Amino acid sequence: MNPYEVLGIREGASEAEIKAAYKELVKKYHPDKYSDNPLADLAEEKMQEINQAYDMLMKGNTGSYTGYGSTRADYMQVRREIDMGNLNIAEDILNKTGDRSAEWFFLKGVICSRKGWYDDAVNNLQQAVNMDPSNQEYQRHLSSLMNQGGRFRSNASNRGYNNASNDDMCCQALQCYICADCCCDCI
Fold first, then answer.
1. How far apart are CA 74 and CA 51, in angstroms?
2. Which of 56, 121, 176, 184 might form a disulfide with 112, Cβ 3.0–4.6 angstroms?
3. Which residue, 98, 88, 74, 71, is CA-closest to 35?
4. pTM of the full structure
5. Closest by alpha carbon to 28, among 39, 12, 17, 14?
6. Backbone φ and ψ of 161, nearest 5°
7. Residues 13, 58: Cα–Cα separation, whole Å
8. Among 85, 83, 48, which residue's Cα sits nearest to residue 67?
C-alpha cells in the first residue's frame, strides 16, 4: 500500500498537505456519516486504510504494519476514536477484535473510564498491568484512575458521607422507618 496514493497526495508532500488531505478524507468516509447505510462496512474499511496511511506518513512507520485490518491498526483506530470522543464506535471496534491482549484490556479500561464506569475501568486496567507490568502507559493510567477514586472517597468523607462515623440518630431512625415500611407495608 502506498500511503500517498491512499491519501491522494504527491510523494514527498508536506506535513500540512498530509494533514489537510487526511481531514478531507475523514469528513468524506467517517463511519458516522454512513450509519444505517449499506455502505457502512466499506466506509469503515476505507477509514482504517486512511488512518493507517496517515500514521505511516506522520510517524514514519512505513514498514511496521502487518497489513490491512491488522490488530495493531484496529487498536490505533480505537485510540483515535477515543481521542475524538466516539466511545461507542471505539468499543465496537475493540469488541470485534478476537485478541484479548494487555492492550485490549487497557483500551477497554480507558473507554470504561471515559464513560464513568469506575469499577470496570479499574478491573480492565489492572488486568492490562498484570499482563504487561513493564508498560508505563498502563501503569500511569491505572495510577491516575486510582488517585481520582481516592480523591472522591476523601471528598465524600469530608462532606459527612462516611458510614463508619455516622452517629446521627435521626438518620438511623429514618432508615429503620423506611426499611420497616418496605418490609411489612404496615406503616
1. 10
2. 121
3. 88
4. 0.47
5. 39
6. -95, 30
7. 11
8. 48
Handedness of CA 67, 68, 71, 77 (dihedral sign): positive
- pLDDT tens digits, one per residue of 19-44: 999 999 998 888 778 778 888 888 88
From 46, 69, 72, select the one nearest 59 (Cα to Cα). Answer: 72
